[in-house]
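Listing S7. Sequence submitted for prediction.
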Amino acid sequence: MATIGKIRERSGWVIGLIGLAMLGFIATDLLKNRLFFNGNSGGAPKGIGMVFGEEIDPQKFKDRFEESIKNQRSQAKGGELSIEQQDETSDQVWQQLTEELVLDHETDRLGITVTGEEIFDLCIGPNPDNLAKQYLADPKTHQIDKKNVKNFIENIGDLKPEQQQFWSSFEGYLVSERMKAKYKTMISASCYSTDLEMEDEYVSKNKTYSVKYVPLMYNTIEDSTVVVTDKDMKDYYEKHKEDYKRENSRTFEYVSFDDRPTHKDTVATLNSVLALKEPFKNTKDDSSFVVMNGTGTFSNQFQARGSLSDPVMEDSIFNYKKDSDFIGPYYEDSAYKLIKIVDHKTDSVYYYKASHILIKPSPGPDKRADSIDAYNKAKKLYEDASKPGADFAKLATDNSQDDGSAVKGGDLGWFKDGAMVKPFMDAVRNGEKGHLYIVSSQFGTHVIKITENKTNKLVKFGILVKPVMVGAETNDKAYALALAFRTKAYDANSFDATAKSMQLTKRLLEKVKPNQHTIGGLIHPRELIHWAFKDDVKEGSVSDPMRITDKYVVAKMVRVLPEGYASFEEEKAELKKDAVLEKKKQMLSDKLKEAYDKTKSLDVIAQMVKSTVNSGDGIMFESNNIPNLAEEPSFVGAIAGSKQNVVSLPLKGKSGVFIFDVTTVNSIKPPTNYDRDRKLEIDRNKSVIGAMGNEALKKLADIKDFRYLYY
C-alpha cells in the first residue's frame, strides 16, 4: 500500500504539481487590486472571450489563475510574482485555455472520446503515462502497484475530499493529453504525397533555367514626379482592401506627474531596514522572515561560487570572514539590501574562475595541418596577452571562436572542478590569479587566463531586499497636481491648453492594442488601457488621474480605431505611396510594351528604353531569387512557366518591370521511385502538422479576447 499511502500523505502538493503540468508550469498573481473589476461597461460581452461564437465564462479563466498562483507561490515559498511574470502568465493561461476549447469543439464534432478503460490503461497498462509513473509509482521500488492503484481508482468515492480532488485533476490531465494525442494521430494519418507531388517537388529543386532580361527599375523614377489623384488612390484602396484590415486599437495622449520616492522616503526605508537587523539576527526561520519583511531570497543550502547573478554581491559574501553577521544595508536598484551571513564550510571540490580565447581548426581535409595552424594563431594571441597592459577581454572579444563567452570578453564565470574538458582543467587546477596558459583540446586551442584564485568555500546566507517606497506625503503631492490638471482639462482643447500652461510634455501612444502589457514610457499600464477601451470613452474624452507604477497619468483619447477596414481617409498618406508605386509599374510596363510591339529583340528593346540586357543562370522554381535582383517570386514563377526562346510580355515584379527570354532549360530525369523521399517528406509533415492543424482551427474559431474588459 506504499503507493496509495504516498497519495494520501502528499495529495495536497501532488494536486499542485498536477496543476503545474496541466498549465505548463505557469502562474500569475491574481486579483491583486487589479484583476476582474466588477462587471463590464455598457453593452460589452459578458464573457472574457469567444471561441466559435460561444462566450468563455470569466470564472473559468479566473479559476485557472487561482490554481496557477497557488502552485507558483508554493514553488516560490510564498514569494510574490513580478508584474512581468503576471502579464506573461496571463497570456500563457489564455493561450492554453483557448487551445483547449478549440480542441474540445473539434473533437466533439468528430466524435473523439476517451473511455474509462483508456484511463486505466494510461495508469496501469503496459505503457503508462509519464505523469502516472511519477506520481503513482512506489517511492522505494519506483514501480506502479497495479492492484493498489486499481483499487484506489475504483473506490475514489469513499476517500477523502483532497484525494478525490487529486484524482479529478489527474484524470482531467490524462483525458486532455489523450484527446490531443488522438487528434494529432488522426490528422497525421492524412499526411501523404503522391508520385506527381513528389515529381513536382523534385523538379522545383533540381530543374534550372538561364534567362536574359531587360529591367526597368521602379527606383529610377522619383516619387515626386508621379502625380496621383484621389481617384487613383481610391481605386487602389478598393483593389487591395484586405491590406488595410486592422485590429481594434486606440491612439491617445497622456501627461504624467511623477510619484517617485523623495529623500525623506529613502531615509524612512533605510531606518526600517536597520530596525529589522536585530529581529533578522535572532529569527530561527530566515526564509519566512525574508519573504514577510521584503523581497529577496534565502536558501537553507550552502551556496558555492557562481550561485548569484550579481558578481559584486557574490564577492562581498564569499570574501566576508564572519558568520552570524551582516553585510549592509546598502542601496542598489532603488532598494536597500541586507545580507545575513549564517554559516560557512569547505567543500570537497574546488571552484575556478577563468576566461579563455578559443581558436578552432579550419574544417579542411588535412586535420593535422589545420590543428597546427590553429595552435600557431592561439600562440600569437597568448604572446599578445602576456604583454604588460594587455587587454585580455578585448583580445577574446575580437578573436575567440567561442560565441558564448566571446561576447563577455572570454569570461567563463565560476565552474566546478571537472566541468571543463581535461586539458583545460589540468591547466587551471594549479594556477593562480593572473596566470596564462595555452592548451589544446578536442574543441581547438585555448588561451586561458585565470581571473580568480580557486576556492572551496561554501556559504549559507540570506538577502533581505526592501524597495524604497513612496510615502503618503509624496503620493498626496503628485495626486494633487494630477487632480488640479484634470479639473482644468475637461475636453480635448482644454487638455492641450492646460498641458501647455503647466509646461507638461504630452506623450502620444499610437494604435495601442487592448491586451498590450507595455506601452512607451509606462510600466504596467493596464488601468490606462482598460480606460481607453471602455464603451463610453470617445474621441476627445479625458481620463481621471490614474496611478501607473511610479506616476499619476491623465490621458486624452485621440482616435478610436475599431476592428475592421481602415477608411480611405485614415490611410490616405500610406495609400498615396502605394498608388505612386502602382502608377510607376504601369508607366514602365507601358514603356516596355511599346518597345515590345515594335521588336522582339532584347538588344533593340534595351536600346529603345535606355536599359541593358542582363542575364541570370541557375534559377530554380523553389528559390525566389534572381542573380543581382534578390527576391523576385513573380519573376521566378513566370520564368518557370515560360517557353524557351520566346520573348515575354512585360512582367511587373517586386523591384521593377521585366521583359525576358528563357535561353536555357536544364532538363532533368526524375527518379523512377520516390519511396525513400516520400517517407522523409511524410515524416517532416507529421512533425509540423499538429501545430499547423491547431493554427488552422484557431483561425476557424475566430477567437475574441476581451480580457481588457475585466482587468
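Caption to Listing S7: primary sequence and predicted C-alpha cells for the chain studied. The CA atoms of residues 676 and 682 lie 10 Å apart. The chain has 23 helices and 21 strands.
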